[in-house]
Design brief:
Layout: E1 4-13, E2 16-26, E3 31-35, H1 42-50, E4 57-62, E5 65-67, H2 72-77, E6 80-83, H3 95-100, H4 106-110, H5 114-127, H6 144-157, E7 162-166, H7 174-189, E8 193-197, H8 201-207, E9 210-215, E10 218-224
Parallel strand pairs: 3-8, 3-9, 6-7, 7-8
Antiparallel strand pairs: 1-2, 1-4, 4-5, 9-10
Helix pairs in contact: 6-7
This protein binds adenosine-5'-diphosphate (2 copies).
One adenosine-5'-diphosphate is lined by residues 13, 16, 18, 36, 38-44.
Protein name: Simple sugar transport system ATP-binding protein
Domain ABC transporter: 4-232
Keywords: ATP-binding, Nucleotide-binding, Sugar transport, Transport
Length: 232
């Protein structure tokens, strides 16, 4: 059964209907790619799942329970990690502090000394094949691709069930996009349900198995890879 399920969800900003009648299932171990032109409702969809906006119609369920998130914290506490394109991490903070930042168990780690936190961050990033020579440097010094990878690695390590990625490759070149796509696959292999928002159909097709196209706030296509036939 889906970990996140939107049933006939709508969202209006005043009299702007950003989403209408959106039904969508996010399953663990799948990469759900959400495509659509500017203004199609992609950000609005993310904001509802991530706790930045409440939907105005329909039902959002997480793990089969009806939910209505009124803060990002509530979404995170439900196991939903969201990585935004520009705000993936806190730019002025060191790499290792960022690794622990914002997680449910940060409090427990708060009593842990810095040396130990640094060691864990280093071990985890190395384990996931991310090599950052100096974990003391501010995250803002790293490339956009490295920041996305750290944010994804962090979500996997902290046991997120769902990972939402807002245009993670939009600002990246071919090589860095490839690295980030590899981490998206790692998150799926770790059993997360991934929601990959992208403008890039090629990136979607490289990693996705579930494709949802939004058009003017409605779902205009919802299909699985197995259902796509390239013949005829
Ligand atoms: P996308 O992310 O696909 O570009 P959005 O979710 O940002 O689409 O926008 C969907 C529609 O809702 C657009 O018509 C947009 O102008 C409108 N919209 C988005 N956010 C707001 C807002 N905070 N207030 C008013 N209208 C908004
Ligand atoms: P929020 O999304 O929490 O409202 P934003 O910074 O996105 O915060 O938007 C602030 C205000 O700017 C919104 O309340 C809306 O009036 C306007 N706005 C933002 N994005 C859009 C958009 N895509 N289309 C129309 N108006 C927007």
């Amino acid at each position: 059964s889906p970990i996140v399920y939107l049933d006939d969800v709508g969202k209006s900003y005043g009299n702007v209907h950003a989403l209408r009648g959106v039904t969508l299932a996010v399953r663990q171990g799948e990469i759900t790619c959400v495509l659509g032109d500017n203004g199609a409702g992609k950000s609005t969809l993310i904001k509802i799942i991530a706790g930045l906006h409440e939907h105005t119609d329909g039902v959002l369920s997480v793990n089969g329970e009806e939910r209505r998130f009124s803060s990002p914290r509530e979404s995170l506490d439900s196991g939903i990690a969201t990585v935004y394109q520009d705000l993936a991490l806190a730019p002025l903070m060191s790499v290792w502090r960022n690794f622990f930042l914002g997680n449910e168990i940060t409090k427990a780690f708060g009593t842990m000394d810095a040396t130990r936190m640094k060691r864990i961050a280093n071990e985890e990033l190395t384990k996931m094949g991310i090599s950052i020579p100096n974990l003391e440097q501010p995250v803002g010094m790293l490339s956009g691709g490295q920041r996305q990878c750290i944010a994804i690695a962090r979500a996997i390590y902290f046991g997120a069930k769902v990972l939402i990625l807002d245009e993670p490759t939009a600002a990246l070149g071919v090589k860095q996009s490839g690295v980030v796509l590899k981490y998206i696959v790692k998150a799926r292999d770790a059993g997360l349900g991934v929601v990959f928002i992208t403008h890039n159909p090629h990136h979607a097709y490289l990693v996705g198995n579930h494709f949802v196209v939004l058009k003017l706030g409605r779902v205009s296509l919802d299909t699985h890879r197995a259902d796509i036939s390239l013949e005829q």
